[in-house]
Amino acid sequence: MGTCKEKYRYLNGFNSYHESEAVEGALPIGANSPQKPPYGLYAEKLSGTAFTAPRHENQQTWLYRILPSCGHSNFEPRESSTYNTNPENKPYEKIHHIPNQLRWDPFDLDKTVDWVHSLHLVAGAGDPTMKSGLGIYIYAAGKDMAAHEAFYSSDGDFLIVPQHGALDIQTEMGHLLVRPNEICVIPRGIKYRVTLPAGPVRGYILELYQGHFSLPELGPIGSNCLANARDFQAPVATFEEDTSTSWTILCKFAGHLFAASQTHSPFDVVAWHGLYYPYKYDLGRFNTIGSVSFDHPDPSIYTVLTAQSDRPGTAIADFVIFPPRWLVAEDTFRPPWYHRNTMSEFMGLIHGQYDAKTGGGFQPAGASLHNVMSGHGPDATTHEKASNAGLKPSKVGDGSMAFMFESCLMVGVTEWGLSKCKKVQKDYNAESWEPLKPHFKRPGKIENGAGDVREEGVEGDKAQVPHWTA
């Protein structure tokens, strides 16, 4: 599963009401904010939704900590001329909305920067100040965050997809170890520090500016399959008792970086209970389903997490994977069919080879973007192979894991993503689809809409349905 062995314990369950205490008795009994919390702790409520959000959507957590979060200096802008992950605020760094299919070569590792400074916005839509839309990032870091430094985003929830290297993430609620083939979600506002126990790291991030991720509805599938709730893991409480060291708190706010100082650790939560917390998931536990008769189902059957818009069934963001699976469909073109989609599709490859792109251009640590209504599908090499393959049961994607960030929004590309990263493949279409050849064979006789038969090349008659144009 990765380069590091698991070293932490976890609480199991997605959207489960969890409670955890590092010191027995640190959680108040029967009250959230007693006059004097146990052991002289401070009670602090962390709200991930409005107080009055419907009960089934409400996400709040009570923290019992040595000192409250508000004890810090004023936030001041940091690196304001260079650090910007909301480029619509700067006209000279505008987002480009283009219909072209795009594909990127593998993004470089960068051993010179830490987690915070490794974040590069590739594409996105919406505005974090309006809590609408999403941002798509590449991260590539080679250094631990400073020993007394923590980071949080006020802009949205981070869904982190490691591609190379392990992330040891210390959060306010406890520790997460996240390796390739695992993902984690760190909700808006939760502070954390990232260290790199196995060296440089690289991967992908979807930042959700609105709402939170949930499990997709299963409908006729029933009550199990896809990502099962029991396989999601949340940290257990662990704390630092440090009230004398100078700490720097970094905040991403409206896409810009701010910093404040404080003389106590932000990781001083002795106990917590609630529904708002970071979590991780092993993609190898995804229970894949598929056709056992004919035709390729919609890729929505591979959805791990979703964030719905105000129109049910239409997602601001879906996180979809293409795991190893058996194909048994008869008389069926087994790779994904060619399609144009009202949704935008950003794909990445964690490892292996994606079964719909066997031409060699879609590589681990690379990416592609097929925007709203931009046609795409298997490359010419894959089409040729799949059209002539024997249709015996076969396993595809063995040793591979591709994923997709899908959105109903039109996703724009940043200057960094389009040019500065120098990874865009100029010959994507030429390599993938322009080599496709026509296979249409015109029959000797063609039946027109009126039911009569005419010889090839002979004009139809005035009985043609629905009308005749002279």
TrEMBL record:
Q: Which residues form the Homogentisate 1,2-dioxygenase N-terminal domain?
A: 9-283
Q: Name one GO biological process term.
A: L-tyrosine catabolic process
Pfam families registered for this protein in UniProt: HgmA_C (PF04209), HgmA_N (PF20510)
Residue ranges for the region (Disordered) are 439-470
Q: Which GO terms describe its molecular function?
A: homogentisate 1,2-dioxygenase activity; metal ion binding
**Which pathway is recorded for this entry?**
Amino-acid degradation; L-phenylalanine degradation; acetoacetate and fumarate from L-phenylalanine: step 4/6
Limits of the Homogentisate 1,2-dioxygenase C-terminal domain: 285-440
Task: Give, as one word, the top-level EC class.
Answer: oxidoreductase
Cellular component GO terms, alphabetically? cytoplasm
Which positions carry the signal peptide feature in this UniProt record?
A: none
The residues that hold Fe cation are 339, 345, 376
Q: What is this protein called?
A: homogentisate 1,2-dioxygenase
- So where's the catalytic machinery, residue-wise? 296
Q: Which UniProt keywords apply?
A: Dioxygenase, Iron, Metal-binding, Oxidoreductase, Phenylalanine catabolism, Tyrosine catabolism
Question: What are the required cofactors?
Answer: Fe cation
Amino-acid positions noted as binding homogentisate in the UniProt annotation, renumbered to this chain: 354, 376
Give the record's family classification. Answer: Belongs to the homogentisate dioxygenase family.
Q: Which organism is it from?
A: Clohesyomyces aquaticus
Q: Any idea of its EC number?
A: 1.13.11.5
Q: Which InterPro entries match?
A: HgmA_C (IPR046451), HgmA_N (IPR046452), Homogentis_dOase (IPR005708), RmlC-like_jellyroll (IPR014710), RmlC_Cupin_sf (IPR011051)
Q: Where is the composition biased (Basic and acidic residues)?
A: 452-464
